[in-house]
Structures are given as structure tokens and as C-alpha cells.
């Protein structure tokens, strides 16, 4: 099954220009052909093409399936953007494929990147969602200061990945949790002050294994560990 994306398909049954071009010019779909569209919030729609315009392909909804492959957990990963944009894009793509519900970009003391536009990240997330046959599009939050993030976050279970003597393996403490936040630091790691502040706000310190991981790798590993239980 090949998926297309339209965020408000109930009120706007027209594919985006990109999806329209792919549908009509690349896949050579015609009037009365059946395609499947997701809305990013769990809806899967079986649709019939009624107008083959390469910029505005129009469809008619035949059937609707809500909560398509709804997850039993809400996974939120907060991560410091990498200096190399390709690496954070890789992290995002793989985590969407594996399963993630929300991603926050955080500015830390050792952060190498001071700004990060989310427009491109959202396009990558949409592409990964369609490729992996998912109907839920993760929420991607704008870059925000570390202190502000830990102060305002309301997740039930909060972890910060950091190598300390009292850190527990994430795989040993995440089982059974339904609302999980995992915070991943920059290449230079979190400072001791940041870790202390996070601990005061209810974050539990965890490790992702014995290896020293790149930021984007740590994010993917954390996502994989949490999803392994569900």
C-alpha cells in the first residue's frame, strides 16, 4: 500500500502539489483509481480519484479508518540539534519510521547549532511517515532553551541520558511506562549543572549502553529501546 498525505482531507480533498505530481505523473494514476491517504492524526482514507490534475489531484473519500495503528505509548524525544544538519535529519527520519510521537529541539550549554528551522524537518517527517505506512505525524517543536524546556515539560516519566555512576540502563526502567520523555544531549554532552537541574525537575538519569554514541545515534537507540516494549 502506498500512502499520500493530506492534513485536512475531510474539508479539503485535494492532494498537495508534490503528491499530485507523484500520483499523476510518476504513478500514472487515472480517474476512478483508488489511493490511500493519511491525515497525520490517525486517519486512513480510501479514496477514488475524480480529477487528474498534476498540481491539484482531486479525490472522493470512499471509506475512513480512525486510529490506524494507534500506539499504546506516547514517546517524546528532546534532542540538541547537531552541527551537521544531515545528522539530525537522519535521526528524525529513523525515529519516525520506528515510532515517535513528539520531538523537541533543545538548546544546551554545549550545543553546536544555535538555530534550527523545523520546516525541512516536517517535510522529512511526512515522507518517513508515508514510507513506513503510518498515519500519525509526530509533533516537532521549535528550538527552545534547556532550562525553559525542563521547567515546562509535563511528561509523566522523564529520563535524561547521561553517563554517571548512578545511571540506570533505559531498557531496565522504561517497561510499563505509557508517557515517556527521553532527553538526549549534544556531542559535548550535558553539563553537570544541567544534569542536576534536570534531576531536580524529576528526570531520572539513564544510560543507553556502554558505548559512547553520537547525538543522532543516541536518539535512534533511545527510540528503539522504548519501542521494543510495545
TrEMBL record:
Chain ranges of the Ribosomal RNA small subunit methyltransferase E PUA-like domain: 15-62
GO aspect biological process, one term: methylation
Residue ranges of every copy of the Ribosomal RNA small subunit methyltransferase E methyltransferase domain listed in the record: 74-226
CDD domains cross-referenced by the UniProt entry: RsmE-like
Record keywords, A-Z: Cytoplasm, Methyltransferase, rRNA processing, S-adenosyl-L-methionine, Transferase
Its EC number(s): 2.1.1.193
SUPFAM superfamilies xref list: alpha/beta knot, PUA domain-like
Main location: cytoplasm
Pfam family, one: Methyltrans_RNA
InterPro entries per the UniProt record, alphabetical: Alpha/beta_knot_MTases, PUA-like_sf, RsmE, RsmE_MTase_dom, RsmE_PUA-like, tRNA_m1G_MTases_N
Function: Specifically methylates the N3 position of the uracil ring of uridine 1498 (m3U1498) in 16S rRNA. Acts on the fully assembled 30S ribosomal subunit.
Family: Belongs to the RNA methyltransferase RsmE family.
UniProt-recorded name of the protein: Ribosomal RNA small subunit methyltransferase E
Native source species: Emticicia oligotrophica (strain DSM 17448 / CIP 109782 / MTCC 6937 / GPTSA100-15)
